[in-house]
Design a protein that fits this description.
Largest sheet: 7 strands, mixed
Distance between the termini: 40 Å
Order of helices and strands: EEEEEEEEEEE
Shape: globular
Length: 124
């Protein structure tokens, strides 16, 4: 079955960086549009960044200029490089896969497979 396993979360001081990874099994990420989402306690889930099969990317306004989504098809792994982190970035971060290519970049309802999440905490 398809599994997405995130890693790389942790606690970091404001202004610091983290790199999240999402390793996929049971599917090939080159055939999936993928994205990163986050959800903080008491808040709605929000899309952070998405990447299409052809490598084109899109970012939420909150992530533009600070976060970079990328993938390594050979390693079947999705990444999210997060720089200049802010306390408001504190959240559980999830990767997701669509099981097809194309469509909206990070509309949650479009994604079929989800990881278990990795916690990111940014302290001031």
């Amino acid at each position: 079955q398809v599994q997405l396993v995130e890693s790389g979360g942790g606690s970091v001081q404001a202004g610091g960086s983290l790199r999240l990874s999402c390793r996929a099994s049971g599917t090939t990420i080159s055939r999936n549009s993928m994205a990163w989402f986050r959800q903080a306690p008491g808040k709605a889930r929000e899309g952070v960044a998405g990447i299409q099969c052809d490598g084109s990317t899109s970012y939420a306004d909150s992530a533009k200029g600070r976060f970079t989504i990328s993938k390594d098809n050979a390693k079947n792994t999705l990444y999210l490089q997060m720089n200049s982190l802010k306390p408001e970035d504190t959240s559980m971060y999830y990767c997701a896969a669509k099981f097809y290519c194309g469509g909206r970049y990070f509309e949650g309802a479009d994604f079929r497979y989800w990881g278990q999440g990795t916690q990111v905490t940014v302290y001031s």
